[in-house]
Amino acid sequence: MTSTEVIDLRLLHELTPVAEKLLERHEGTAKEWFPHEFVPWSRGRDFVEGEEWDPTETPLPDAVRSALYVNLLTEDNLPYYFRTIERIFGSDGPWGEWVRRWTAEEGRHATVIRDYLTVTRAIDPVVLERGRMQQVSCGIVPEPQNPFDGMVYVCLQELATRISHRGTGKLLDDPVGYKVMARVATDENLHFLFYRDLVNAALEVDPSSVVMAIERQVRDFEMPGTGIEGFSKHARAIAKAGIYDLSLHHDQILVPVVLRDWHVGELEGLNDEADQARHSLIDRVERIGRAGRRMAERWASADA
To answer: What is the mean pLDDT of residues 82-104?
Structure first.
């Protein structure tokens, strides 16, 4: 066993009581729900063999279709996210219980979104299925290499996913669709809270290592959906529609979580390397904010 692996095991051992309490809190807060009760089955009809999908049946802006497509294919990639998280945290004790509970809850998201899209014909089902086959066959997901980076990444990722789902729902112009996306976003928020508070606890155990992990993950952050064919095109459309862009990433993730919840600017007892990482991190957050504002201004001018 390498020295790094020993450190990883020590961290997980020290955080096990915290993980157990956070799991208990999650189980006490999460509400049972059933995907079939959210789907407007009465609006559906059979797909005739060879029938061409007609986008006029459910008129939607292209950006909203892109968001629904990316959001669902991200959820479809669950097996690989499970593999990554179980590798980082293990399968024993509250860590394993959390990973399995998280997987069970995430599995419902793909079910309810896919059923909603199929019934309402909001997306071409042939394109969607081909995208699912391509995405899951490749199995590309971010791969944090240790528990520090893993906790930070999944925290940021869960919050980003929550924002994307809720923002998509607001643009659907369909109360049923909004309810579907809001229900999924509620789950994602509870997952985010688990990881946010886990990182806070880790900062008390080893602040220097965690700050360096936060800096790495903010610097290299990739939105869920990386690996989807045509992802860059979809991401641009999603950003331009204001569903998820640099401004939201800065204002609703980096500032409230990294700067306020984790208090990276006020942490004490950091070693020299971590202190340098902290300064780089704060500078990066500021630069992302400026870039987001410039981008929003360009798009506003183009639409004026």
So the answer is: 94
pLDDT digits (tens, 9 = 90+) for 130-170: 999 999 998 888 888 899 999 999 999 999 999 999 999 99
Give a three-class secondary structure readout of 9-36.
HHHHHHHHHHHHHHHHHHHHHCCCCCHH
Positive or negative: CA dihedral 242, 232, 116, 100: negative
Residues 71 and 172 sit within 8 Å (Cβ to Cβ): no
What length is written for the chain? 304
Q: Closest by alpha carbon to 220, among 170, 133, 157, 137? A: 157
Parse the chain into domains and list their residue ranges.
Answer: 3-43+55-303
CATH class of the structural domain 3-43+55-303: mainly alpha
